[in-house]
Amino acid sequence: MEIFSVLKDIVDRPGVTGFEDQRRERVVEYFSKFCDTVSVDVIGNVIGTLGSGERSVMLAGHYDQIGFMVKYVDEKGFAYFSPVGGWDPRVIYGARVKIWTGNDPDSYVVGTIGARPAHLVEREERTKAVKFEELHVDFGAKSREEAEGWGVRPGCVMTIDSPVSRLGKAQGDSDLAVGAGFDDACAVASFIKALEVLAEDPPEKLKLYMVATVQEEIGLRGAQVSGFNIAPWCAIASDVTHAVAPGVKPSRVGDVKLGEGPAIAVGANFTRALWELMEEVAKREGIPYQIEPVPAGSGTDAWALQVLRGGTITGLISVPNRYMHSPNEVISLRDLENVARLIAATVRELEKSDLRHTREVFRRR
Ligand SMILES: [Zn+2]
């Protein structure tokens, strides 16, 4: 399968936290091609299993995306909204949006986050950032009644209308892709590629749980639920991480670069023996990789999974991402392929591993 088409197929569907249904449908279809079983739990996590061993390895990548929720529609038919997840209002001022009125791909209303013409903004005002409460969506309705007739009402979620495409020359084959909501459905595209490889020779000494999680963006909630139910021996999260870009210095985010391979995270949120194992595997298999220093919490599903129940062997593989949480994030397709390769090779290596949660270090005779 071509990773760009899988990526586009998933990411171009809406998956605002708590409203992941349209993406879920596609993830289930893809997982069903390669897994032994696929289930959806009460909160909406998609869990695909492969293999028959006793020990369980869980991969977690979230497929919810940040978005917005309509809070109020005024009598003139303009909508006011709040962010779902972490947004900087400056990046959405003047953006085109889709207001979702139902669960079908066609159930939306096109709107724009109305920007005031520059001519009408005082010079001093232009130096100040806009606030969410000052923003409105114009979606063409003339009244609240008309908006209601179209299905737009408080509680509808909105996404930025910015379909996935390749960066660079028109009709070119750039390695870089641009779009809204790569965080973190792009990791799920890597999972699908990894499953394709692993399904050719399913693991016998362990059972793989490939989990596309929900509600990461508002507090890692899908990982908590699925992790508790699976109780994995080892859990690896995959998410996006900041890549250096103009204004984003390596001294702040680590020297993670686009196109130079998956980032293996190092720090208290992870198990040293596991990140060392992943490094060894990457070196042996010739998979390019980078090290991401994470001094405290990673803010990813790995944070929840590590301390679930009695604690879990935990790791994090990240996809370098520029302009995270903006209408146009940029990632490298080669990085996605290499994340898939690293996941598949790590699962094979874990089959041979004797890593333990608890080792007896003393016994009185
Ligand atoms: Zn995010």
Main β-sheet, in a few words?
8 strands, mixed
Order of helices and strands: HHEEEEEEEHEHEEEHEHEHEHEHEEH
Classify the helix fraction into a percent range.
25-40%
How many domains, as an integer?
2
- The general outline is globular
Bound compounds: zinc ion
CATH superfamily of the largest domain: Zn peptidases
Description:
There is one protein chain. With 365 residues, the chain is an alpha+beta fold. The chain folds into 2 domains: 3-65 and 181-352, 3-Layer(aba) Sandwich (Aminopeptidase); 67-161, Elongation Factor Tu (Ef-tu), domain 3. It is 28% helix and 25% strand. The chain has 10 helices and 17 strands. It has helices at 3-11, 21-34, 123-126, 144-149, 182-198, 221-230, 250-253, 272-285, 301-306, 333-352; strands spanning 37-40, 46-50, 55-62, 67-73, 78-84, 96-100, 108-113, 137-138, 157-160, 165-166, 176-179, 206-213, 234-242, 263-266, 290-293, 313-321, 329-332. The strands form 3 sheets. The chain has an 8-stranded mixed beta sheet with strand order 1-2-12-3-13-16-14-15, with helices on both faces. Strands 4-5-8-7-6-9 form a 6-stranded antiparallel β-barrel. A hairpin with a 5-residue loop joins strand 1 and strand 2 (46-50). The protein starts with a helix and ends in a 13-residue tail after the last helix. The mean pLDDT is 96. The protein binds zinc ion (ZN). The site of zinc ion (ZN) has 3 residues, from loops. Residues 183, 217, 325 line the site of zinc ion (ZN).
